[in-house]
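Cross-check.
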Amino acid sequence: MKKQTKIWFFSLIFFFSFLWITFWESTLLTTMKTQKTVIENLYDTSYQTVYNQFQTSALSVIKSLNYQSLVCLGVMDGDLFLQQMQSDMKTLKMEFLTTYNRIYTDLVDIEQKYTLEKDTSVVLFASGSSYTSEYAKLSWEFMILITENKQLAQNFQSSYQSKIATFIQDVDDYTTKNQTLVTAISAKIQKIQSLTSDFQQITDKLSTFRENLAGTWKAFFTQIQKIKSASLSGLDTSMQNLANVKVKRYRILKTLSWELSTQKDYAIGLFAMQFDEKLNLFLSQWYDNKEYLSLKNQLDIFYKKYFSSNTYQCTTLLTSTWFDTDALSLQQKITNFGTTLSFSWVTTSNIDFQNKVLAWFTTVSSGQKEMLKTFTTAMNQKISSLLAIYRWEVSSLSSTVSSEQSSSTQTSSFTVTNFTFTRPFTTNQKHSDIKILQQLLTSIGFYTGEVNGMYDKQTKNAVYQFQLANWILKWYENKPQTWWWMGPATRAKLNQLLKG
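Predicted model, tokenized:
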């Protein structure tokens, strides 16, 4: 009876296995893809469940001073716990995918063999095996893979839920065993956190104060930009009108239009720069950064000693005899700065600010008039120098050049009336003033090149030799960037020679 029951049992297994294999022959590839997604989602769900539990149960522990003290001592590390959890999950997923990809590849391979056998009548399966047997083997293997990984996902979740409980208990146990040490470190960590929090409040308060100025007086800043644009436009028009009159009057000066246009652009750029400088100087009285930056620097030095790279320096915290003094000093400075800032904020009334703004506006108009006056003076000076060059070129350039070429060692005098060097030149710049410079340097024996009006290498070297000869570079021997640069001292000496 038992034997007949056993035979009947295995017959049923064989029958249902055959039906199961027949069904999977047409759906296994599709089923594999579906089950792969199921297992991946299951792993993700298990990990997220454990991670959420860690955040819920252990996050308050991690934020506690006791735990931070244990981390400082090197006893605990919550980051390592999470890293290990991530690593374990990654390993499980990789092992599953490796086996899955192998089975999938093998399944595709036997499908291709089966198709080729039907088309060519060539036997491709090894002796003792067939498409059906290989298919059944892979089907069973895949079923086992799915079953095992479902269990592994459950095991992962239950294992790490237990580890979280152990982690929390370890924190309590270590705290109890090292209570004195933990208490000492906790107190100092708390002071560091308190300093950080207080300074952040000061930073936020200062930021709010500035935003209050910028926000409340947004109309003022908008008006400032309008005034700046109008001033620049008006200055440009006034200068251009003056220049047009001069260009029309002195038609013989072919480069005058370009020279005055360049001078005008320089003057307008200078006015814009001075405008911004005055504005910054005006606004700086309302929020000076010096005291704040000094306080921040002192706090950075404190951090470097006790809290370097966002890590509490446990050894220094325990051994330093200056920690309490340093912390108290910083705390007092932060408190004092906060009081000063609050006082400044309260006493900065709208009326006071408006009065100072109105007073500042008058300096803009004054600066515009001053720049126009400066441009007029520079324009007249430029015309004088161009006229001098024109007359000199017409009457005596030929004889002067031939005389200089016949004897390069002989020094002659060279003077130009109503001309003054007023600005430096840049490398390879071409300008009529450079011709005068070249003629002057030729006359005193420093320049032997062509009078071409270009500030080229030979002209720069002549200026450098002139500077050396007149001790102009006595404070700049080790600063090559200042050599050949026609600064105020160099121009003064050249102007002195021009006047004879």
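The mean pLDDT is 78. DSSP finds 15 helices and no strands in the chain. Passed to J.P. for a second look.
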